[in-house]
Structure formats: C-alpha cells, structure tokens
Design a protein that fits this description.
Helix 5 (about 110-130) packs antiparallel against helix 6 (about 135-140). This protein has two domains: about 1-30; about 95-240, Nuclear Transport Factor 2, Chain: A, CATH 3.10.450.240. It has helices at about 1-30, 45-55, 75-85, 95-105, 110-130, 135-140, 145-160, and strands at about 160-180, 185-200, 205-210, 215-225, 235-240. The radius of gyration is 36 Å and the shape is elongated. By secondary structure, it is of the alpha+beta class.
C-alpha cells in the first residue's frame, strides 16, 4: 500500500513541476517574443563605429576605449601634437611654443577661430576710430589703448575735422607671436589690408589722406585676455605698423 501511495505522490509532484515549467515557458515567450529572422543585428563596437559615433554626437570616447591597436601604429596624441598648428606655426618654433602655453591655460583656444574674430575686430576698430565711436571702442580696447585713441579723436573734434575710412580688402591676418604669462594670454597679429582714408576740415578740404588713392596698410596689433576669466573676449592692448 505504501509503495502505491508513494508512487501516486511522485506522479502528482511530477505533474505539478511539469505544469509549472510549461507556465514559465509561456510567460517568458510572451515577454521576450520570438525571433522572426527580421531582427537588426546587435551594434558592433568596432573602432570605426566608435569613431563614427564621436563624429555624429557630442559623446567623446574616453581614453582606452579602443584598445586593439597595432603596437607600431603612431600615437594619435603624437600626430595631433605635430599637426596641431599646421598652417599657423612650424613645430618647435617660439610661436608654436607660445600657442602650446596658451592651450595649457585655456583648452578651448582655437587659433583659427581667433584669427577670424581678429579680422572682424580689426575692421570694427578702424572704422569706429574713424567715426569717433567711443562706445564701440571702449568694448574692444584696453584702457591704455582707448586713452590713446580718444586723444586723437578729441583732437579731431577740437579742429572740427572728420575722417572717412573705407576698406577695400583685408588680404592677410596671421598670428606672428604668442605668449602666456600667469593668467594672461597675448597674441600678436599682422594685418595686411587695402583701404581709402581721408580727413577733411569743416569746409570739406582734405587735410590728410587721399580720397582717390588705395593705400596698402600693414598693422601689427596685440590682443590679450585673462584666461581665468569667464569673459571669452580679447581686447586690443597694443598697436604698431610695419613696412
């Protein structure tokens, strides 16, 4: 009797376990679904995909993400260092070293972006000076340079003179010197331009310049900014000319 009862108990438990197994299988199937053969393959994190992802988004891969590199391949950092100032400064020159020093203080510094902004500032300052626009000049010049410009403007006003300046072209704008000391970064730019400038008295008589002549002008200007400041703007701190 006991053996038959034990056998029945085993059969009952077996049936219960089988029922549970079928129930769990059906639940998993309903949650996970079935493969139909049309599923997209999983994304492969190859070096090419990582690089493409960095270009298509703002995500920057951390160092060491791509670890399967050929041992003899040149380091990306070395290549970037050699080509960092390509077209701006030769490697190992004082200019390149000065640019390196500025980047060490301000990693967001981009010399090409700076030169583009310097061209615009150059034209704005020259025209503001000619027009006696003190408000515009005050935002673009250091206090020392502003005082120098203001002195000339006041002298023109005293003699009731007006200056007319028109740019024909800005042929070149290139960084010729760079320096970083403490928190101050300085960049010197040489501008080569063509412009027409003339100064007239109250009667319209020309007292300086020639309204019909295009003059070749070469200016050497120095801009500076505090790299620890949140203000990203550079100001003109020195002016000069070259033949």
């Amino acid at each position: 009797m006991r053996s038959k009862k034990a056998k029945r108990d085993v059969d009952i438990y077996t049936i219960i376990f089988l029922a549970l197994a079928v129930f769990i299988f059906l639940r998993l199937r309903s949650v996970l679904g079935q493969r139909t053969g049309s599923e997209r393959p999983p994304f492969e994190r190859s070096p090419r995909n990582i690089a493409q992802g960095a270009q298509d988004s703002n995500v920057v891969p951390m160092p060491g993400t791509v670890i399967d590199q050929a041992p003899l391949a040149p380091s990306a950092d070395v290549a970037a260092s050699a080509d960092r100032w390509k077209g701006i400064a030769e490697p190992g020159t004082p200019l390149a070293q000065g640019l390196d020093a500025i980047v060490a203080q301000d990693s967001s510094f981009d010399p090409r972006h700076f030169v583009s902004g310097a061209r615009s500032a150059y034209e704005m300052i020259v025209l503001a000076f000619a027009n006696g626009d003190r408000r515009a000049l005050r935002d673009l010049l250091s206090s020392e340079v502003y005082e120098s410009f203001d002195t000339v403007i006041r002298d023109r006003e005293k003699h009731d003179q007006k200056t007319e300046t028109r740019f024909v072209s800005i042929d070149k704008a290139e960084i010729v010197a760079a320096e970083a000391r403490d928190r101050a970064a300085q960049l010197t730019v040489r501008f080569v331009s063509q412009m027409i400038s003339v100064t007239r008295d109250r009667n319209g008589t020309v007292v300086d310049g020639n309204p019909d002549k295009v003059a070749d002008i070469t200016d050497v200007w120095t801009f500076a900014r505090d790299t620890a400041s949140r203000d990203p703007n550079w100001k003109l701190v020195g002016t000069g000319s070259a033949g």
